[in-house]
């Protein structure tokens, strides 16, 4: 440990979204403790920019569950590096963010090294594989939940769980009177439609062609409809442009999901955290996701324990928005649902208000601030640390 550091935290993130959450956490802890915490871990460039020394850049390798088998060798190699690091270096706290398939192993190594372990973003055991709760109890000292109902679910099963708010809304204010869309003067023939094909390359590969088919069908019906495609970075934007097919012209943008959704009448969205951001902008949507038909029927459908699979509908506990999860082949049912919703401004307005009211409570807490407080307490720090005179 460097001479001017007094505590060391190992932090692990595999997804681009987790990279963002962890970077915000690093900054929030620094605001509480000063520059005396040494951060080491695996993650992405956002974490590195926030001051974390990366053993490996994992966020660019994010994959869907059924494509994870092709990356087993890579993740095994990274896990071996993590285990070796934790064996050879004193760590005061291990923070694992999302990606339980990988981070359960990191947490196990952290506990074995003698460090306390904080899970940031609860694994969705309530949705599938609830039997893994015993693993969580053994490998987790504290659990930071980002969905309101999770605190009670995990606490009732012996896990020290706390709802901290949702980090997606740390920098977003959600207000029903401001964010609900009125659709005054709305004309479906000139609708502004947002397409969000996902943040992972594999999602774009599987869902972008299907979204283009749906856009083409809508354009055939309403030639004045405008289509905007939002990407998370330049690399994904390039991929979208290179894989464009059909006659529809798209406006491409790199922008925050909430900002892009704020200017749209309707969105076609890949399932994931983006759906909550779209909801915060009061933008009605249809949600899509792709899966392996064979794996879904052999395994997925039997493991799933929730009636709905999208975060929006899980929180609403009803089908507030249409979800096609998994989507396999025909886009006809999705197109039909889009047309029916786009044709009804009254329905669009009603859904817009319900979406904003649904996510408004999630934006009342600052998740990064709350998790930083948990981390500081777990390390026994009560105030800003004075610079250490020794190693």
Short synopsis of the structure:
This protein is 43% helix and 18% strand. The protein has helices spanning 16-33, 45-50, 72-88, 100-113, 133-139, 150-155, 176-179, 201-221, 234-242, 257-262, 274-280, 293-303, 311-316, 332-342, 345-359, 367-378, and strands spanning 7-13, 37-43, 52-57, 93-97, 116-120, 142-145, 161-163, 192-196, 226-231, 251-254, 266-270, 285-290, 322-327. Strand 1 (7-13), helix 1 (16-33) and strand 2 form a beta-alpha-beta unit.
Description of the structure:
The protein contains 16 helices and 13 strands. With 391 residues, it is α/β, with parallel strands linked by helices. It folds into two domains: 177 residues, Rossmann fold; 188 residues, Glycogen Phosphorylase B (Rossmann fold). The strands form two sheets. Strands 3-2-1-4-5-6-7 form a seven-stranded parallel β-sheet, with helices on both faces. Strands 10-9-8-11-12-13 form a six-stranded parallel β-sheet, with helices on both faces. Helix 3 packs parallel to helix 4 and helix 8 crosses helix 14. The protein is elongated and about 65 Å long. The C terminus is likely disordered.
